[in-house]
Amino acid sequence: MRNKNILISGAGIAGTTLAYWLRRHGFTPTVVERAPAIREGGYKIDIRGAALKVVERMGVLDEIRRLRTDVRGGSIVTATGRAVASMDGDTFGGREGEDAEILRGDLQRVLHDLTRDEVEYLLDDSIAALTEVGDEVKVTFDSGRTRVFDLVVGADGLHSATRALAFGPEARFVRDLGYYVSIFSVPNHLDLDRWELTYVSPRRTSLTYSTAGATGAKAMFLFASEPLEYDHRDRDRQQRILADAYAGEGWEVPRLIGGMNDAPDFYFDSLSQVHMDRWSKGRTALVGDAAYCASPASGQGTSLALVGAYVLAGELAAAGGDHRAGFDGYERALRHFAEQNQNLGPANVKRMVMRSKSQVWFSLKMLALMNRMPGKDRMMAKIVEPIHRAATAIALSDY
Questions:
Q1: Total number of domains constituting the chain
Q2: Is 207 helix (H, G, I), strand (E, B) or coil?
Q3: pLDDT per residue over 343-391, tens digit each?
Q4: Which of 38, 74, 378, 382 has the maximum number of C-beta atoms within 10 A of its C-beta?
């Protein structure tokens, strides 16, 4: 096997999954992670279609099912809290059949447990510079140390530092969809029992939910906006933006927003996608959000990370470690799947965030009407069908 010594930047879902499969195929992966510890917390995510096969082949599908959020259902509410429409959890979340919903932090812990004894993790550090020297890549870390690897893979998310070093500035590849998202933990002051409440107003959507085994709840906010200037690591600035965006809003919004200051897991970012002509350059490749972020609005970011990591490791192994052949095979096998899932984002967010009072009024009326109709299950199936078509838009090879 050629090019066995591989550095992975980022210990998220994509990076950890890639480390697992590379190790299984006989490579020696090392994972560097900016955070001082493996990140926990985060919102609920869905594992669908081809991604279910990946976690099944990793032997963790039963554990993932055990850790399911078990959200029983959800309601759309008015400013006074009156439920306009309610539906079961799978319908509300666009799931069917074997699909599994799990908290991101729980999935991260399961994947890390698979790799922590066999993979070297360099925590509280990150890549500062990459230099290809012959058949190797010299890596300089922020800590000042240097090491040499055969290949480097960036699995470091939407704002990938690896992508910037190897491919160029972020602005060349990141497309802002015109919306922002924030999510964080809050006290469960509404006493929700595995239930989700969503409130929609013009250009702003707010929701809160509780999951199985959790004493608290999550609050999530989606709002439309022109591009905003801020540092993606400046929490204070992000919180001011969020507070300003929801100033004067009704329902439970003021109380939910008020919980952000004490939240240990505050998250804020644009809804953006990454589009690249190539996911590799020389001895460096990208996987997950760093290469083909579909945005949280797609509902497929985690599945893309799982499938992308599986395919990249498998194609490198099938090529005997030949990085050119392996990277090319990865592109051919995954490009259609990535594009199909990226197409979901812009369409989904337009249904999640309404642009005007009239659109909000009409949508709530239609939901209330549909909620009482005997054929509502068939109508909902038509709405979620594109998600499942995209989730299964790849035939996984058995590497």
A1: 2
A2: strand
A3: 999 989 988 999 999 999 888 888 777 767 666 666 666 677 888 899 9
A4: 74
